[in-house]
Amino acid sequence: MEQLKTIGRELAMGSQGGAWAGQSKEFLDLVKSIGEARSKAEEDRIILREIESLRRRIAEPDVPRRRMKDYIIRLVYAEMLGHDASFGYIHAVKMTHDDSLPLKRTGYLAVTLFLNDDHDLIILIINTIQKDLRSDNYLVVCAALTAACKLINEETIPAVLPQVVDLLAHPKETVRKKAVMTLHRFYQRSPASVSHLISNFRKRLCDSDPGVMGATLCPLFDLITEDVNSYKDLVASFASILKQVAERKLPKTYDYHQMPAPFIQIKLLKILALLGSGDKQASGQVYNVLSDLFRKCETSSNIGNAVLYECICCVSSIYPNVKLMDAAIEATSKFLKSDSHNLKYMGIDALGRLIKINPDIAEEHQLAVIDCLEDPDDTLKRKTFELLYKMTKSSNVEVIVERMIDYLISIDDNHYKADIASRCVELAEQFAPSNQWFIQTMNKVFEHAGDLVNSRVAHNLMRLIAEGFGEDDEGADSQLRSSAVDSYLRILGEPKLPSLFLQVICWVLGEYGTADGKYTAAYIIGKLCDVTEAHLCNDTVKAYAISAIMKICAFEIAAGRKVEMLPECQSFLDELSASHSTDLQQRAYELQALLCLDSQAAGNVMPLDASCEDVEIDKDLSFLINFVQQSIEKGANPYLPESERLGMSGVSNFSSPYQQEASSHSLRFEAYELPKPSSIPVIPQPFISTSTTDLVLVPDTTYYRENNQASKLIVGPEASSADAGIKLRLDGVQKKWGKPTYSSSSSITTSVEKTTNGVVAHQDGIRSHSRDTTYDSRRQQPEVSVEKQRLAASLFGASASKTEKKATMAQKAPKGNSTNAEKSSVVRSVSPGTSKDKTAPPPDLLDFGEPVPTSAPTIDPFKELEGLIEPASALGPLYNTVKTGGDKAQDLMALHMDTPPSVSRTSLSLASEGTYSTDKSSYTEKPMIAVKKGPNLQDALHKDATARQVGVTPTGNNPNLFRDLLG
Amino acid sequence: MGIRFVLLVNKQGQTRLAQYYAEHLTLDERRALEGEIVRKCLARTEQQCSFVEHRNYKIVYRRYASLFFLVGVDNDEQMEYTYCGSFTHGRSKQFSSVIAYVAMGAVVDVIAYVNELAILEFIHLFVETMDRHFGNVCELDIMFHLEKAHFMLEEMVMNGCIVETSKSNILAPIQLMEKAS
């Protein structure tokens, strides 16, 4: 207000002293000194001094009541300015008992400001509130209700609930209003405890007092949000109330800036938007009121525009109506053309809502949108990005994402960075025009917001590079890979890269660095070593790097070439072998072991470009039967199932070593028992029948080896089952929630697709003319720069020509145009609408639980689906034992329903723990098993150990290593 | 709807009135929040929007002389768009995904959106109400009658909802109370 502006901070205390009579000199002094404090530190000093004096004086006996009120308000000040005044809480509680209303209310106020609703002191106030709710003085009742709203928690609701319900019929309207809101609060806190009272809200809607009715809209809004269908019968009532309000039937006192009760109108419009959403019949009852409102709303005042904005939101939410859409579009364009940033902001928001119904609307306002995008105001800019995000399609994705990335670079708020980055990723994944572009875009996002991006994004990127684009074009895929490799080698020159990005780079370089023969192995290995040196990287990146080096070495060996150890690589290897991280150590030793292998073995351990292939796991380990039998013939101990072993010793796995130690009084030379596996090992058939003998009594010399064998036998199935358990499940989830989404939803919208395809084709045709048209529109608006025009054209595609048409054909064209648009919009809006009705859209579309492979239109999507899942099921011939035969759809279902025995190697999403799960090694044929790590550390350790025992470890080098691990 | 807090802070960043709804922040959290918000708002010019996003709040603010009135509401900007984690590239799948998104987005948007302009006008209504009561209201009036400013706010907002917008209804209980004492 003007007065506020004039007074400013001048504290003419002397002259105004009289105005605040009734307050103590000390209070006035306190306020004065706080007001004059020039810094936070000064203010803090004042308050601390104040707290000290209050602490002393508030505890004095027989403080006069008025003086106490003074103290309490000073405590409120102390808390408001950020200092603890908890010593005075109890005095505030006491003051709620006071008979004098101002004191009582001040007490309640202080308590609501001081106490959280689970504070211990609350219990002391309940009694007072109960008493006050029964008071004859309605102002006391109001004070108690206000306090109850903030203080009553779930446990204490029953103590006051009956009284509050009684007060709903209180003769005073203020009391009824507050009782409604208190009940609303109870509902928010604990819906169950007041669920039987919900009908009261409906009753209060018909209250004779408009204030009560207005307040009742708040709980009703919440209720309707939760359950629209139970309130459909109220649509007519709401519409008629809105009509009456708009026709100024309410008391004059509700007017605000010549608008009749605008806040009530806004609430009603919100409710109607909910009720009319996707409901043609309900929407029909609202059309009249809405068009009245559009006519009556004053656009000169803020509040008029607020109501107008609410109308637009309502129109965009309910079942579309041509006339209302026109009115909404017109109002939106007024917002956008306004000079006020606030209105522009509302306009952009409104536009974002309207384009959902008719995407063509945006075209008309392209220049306004671009102005907002380039505005220095961050709020407006971000809102505009949100709009662009909503209107992205394949024709403009490049421009929009480019803009987003520019913005991403320019801001430094991590919260927004992460938000924009994930939107970029999402758009890029959905609409990428080319693989090259996609890789480049992802690189940029990673570079600038790397550590803020969800690690899933990185794994998706890796998977994308590994699997290609699903099209059966090997050439394109390998081109994609080599372009990725090229770009990564270039990016590695940058001084600082986020660790997530480095992981991707390492992985891709390892898989495909030497694939196209452009770079030598030595070069790539050198680069990978540089990565770990140049960038201060964590263990995860190092693990990725060493694994990448290992892969390259394996590829080289497999190709029959000799691998020369570069000095930097050797030093890297040495560093890792002595690392504190057992994971890194193991990788280093694995690499060393690998270097000693012949070409065939290396090729089997790390097959070329096999990251997408599945590891086949033979749970029965049938290929080992011969080996086992030979061993038994040679006198080895047969395998004992764990349960039997436990039954014999009668102690748990973990304590058994000690137990045995105690009983046998001899040294143990064998490794401790493996930690108890999380999943029960599948016991190979042949061993169950064999007799039981004591494990401990085996002669030392042979025992060691046999124990190895035994543990190998155990570990095989264990590892596989654990792996299958974890990986497969995750894999299934991802597929369930991932790819099928789109294909299955496409089955529902195929009809729409056709029409939209038509539209798109049409637009493409027009786009060739867009150059001329930009010139035309430029003539109309000479001040608009060429660059903006170009940006507009690229953002809005075909639009330019249309706007031009509209401009020249004046009134008629837009009408025809919009009716057309309306028709198409109906088609479009119907499909989401119906899908919403039949099946709550996103979850159900994704749900694969109900197999519907028989229905006719689903054939297509399943084919698509198959294409997507193919990499998972198409195993290398070597591993392929589970034949996919018979009905393909059925088979697909099987893939989803139960976990198949094959494990996708590309379970990249697992790696969130930082462990690396894409090693190439096979569990099967080879007696040489390079075991990979699961996400579970203990599991990993466990497997590590066995891998070494089985023989991969260069035991000669460091025989004690795995014992440490086991210990 | 969901008003989360009402703050009055002066140019120096000193809090003059603070009321939080439906959440209880510790003193330190409040201090930090208020400081950050005021810094953000002070950095903005007159021409820029009166809306700022801050963490999970959207703040609608209005300045009267040296005093900022700030209202924090739930931020609907944080659209619950679900990141599917799949990379659908096939161009044929675009439309289906867009439509799926639209269907989902419509639901989300309808449930949670703020009418920022209305909040802005609510602030003005609050100022007008105080002006009617105090007459030429200024920062000092609010400081000296902190509890009355709170009482007015209590009449206007309950549970984070605007429940009363008639000035005479808002002021009636306060005037009655004054008379009684």
3D structure, described in words:
Chain B: Its main location: membrane. Chain B: Pfam families: Clat_adaptor_s. The complex is a heterodimer of chains A (967) and B (181). Chain A has 967 residues and is mainly alpha-helical. In chain A, helix 6 packs antiparallel against helix 7, helix 18 runs parallel beside helix 20 and helix 25 packs antiparallel against helix 26. The radius of gyration of chain A is 37 Å and the shape is extended. Chain A starts with a helix and ends with a helix. The relative contact order of chain A is 0.05. The N terminus and C terminus of chain A are likely disordered. With 181 residues, chain B is an alpha+beta fold. Chain B has two domains: 141 residues, Beta-Lactamase (2-Layer Sandwich); 33 residues, no CATH class. In chain B, a hairpin with a 2-residue loop joins strand 6 and strand 7. In chain B, helix 5 packs across helix 6. Chains A and B meet through helix 1, helix 3, helix 5, helix 7 and helix 9 of A and strand 2, helix 1, strand 3, helix 2 and helix 3 of B.
Which stretches of chain A are poorly predicted, pLDDT < 50 over at least 5 residues? Answer: 1-20, 650-664, 681-782, 798-935, 950-967
Strand content of chain A: under 5%
Rg of chain A from C-alpha positions?
Answer: 37 Å
β-strand amount of chain B = 15-25%
Distance between the termini of chain A: 76 Å
Query: Gyration radius of chain B, to the nearest Å?
Result: 20 Å
Taking the sheet with the most strands of chain B, its summary is: 5 strands, antiparallel
